[in-house]
Amino acid sequence: MSALQSSIDALRLAAAAADRVKATDIVAFDVTGPIAITDAMLIATASSERQVLAVAEEVEKELYTKGGKLEPRSREGLEEARWVLLDYGDFVIHIMHEEEREYYDLERLWKDCPQIDLQIPAAPDDAKANISADND
Predict the structure, then answer these.
(1) 95 forms bridges with which residues in the sheet?
(2) What is d(CA 52, CA 106) in angstroms, rounded to the nearest whole number?
(3) What pTM does this model have?
(4) Domain containing 85 — which CATH number?
(5) Which of 75, 80, 125, 114 lies closest to 99, judged by CA?
């Protein structure tokens, strides 16, 4: 298995964990082209400082228990809890408060990079909304 595929598998675990604690706008990018120091990055949004910390904690727990005891090399932003960065070396996870996510607009920086399919199941409400829209 390639390093990128290992990173994608870990990011899928992280995305599922973030989704469970109601993070939103969860996206990931393959950044192997423009960046030599990491393969992929995940970005997730939380609506409060408490939720930013809860998402970070859940992601770390998931990657440790189901990801082969993965632990971040470093953690940044835990005191302010507005933008937590978890650096796992081959991949990086950004958990951002809504205001920081909007202000920094990281997707703009990585728009030319391939987006990774995180395989997060659609929420039941999303599925109902799609069915309603199709029937209109």
Answers:
(1) 44, 84
(2) 17
(3) 0.87
(4) 3.30.460.10
(5) 80
Whether 30 contacts 41, CB under 8 Å: no
pLDDT per 10-residue tile (average), the chain, 136 residues: 88 98 97 91 97 98 97 97 97 98 94 94 55 46
Q: Which domain holds residue 74?
A: 3-135
Whole-angstrom Cα distance, residue 36 to residue 5? 16
Q: Name 44's Cβ contacts closer than 8 Å, sequence gap at least 6.
A: 15, 18, 23, 24, 25, 26, 55, 93, 94, 95, 96
Q: Name every residue whose Cβ is closer than 8 Å to that of residue 109 and which is 6 or more positions away in sequence.
A: none
Count structural domains, the chain. Answer: 1
How does DSSP classify residue 47?
S
Cα 44 from chain centroid? Answer: 4
The DSSP output letter for 89 is S
> 80 φ, ψ to 5°?
-80, -30
Quick check: 85 and 13 in contact, CB under 8 A?
A: no
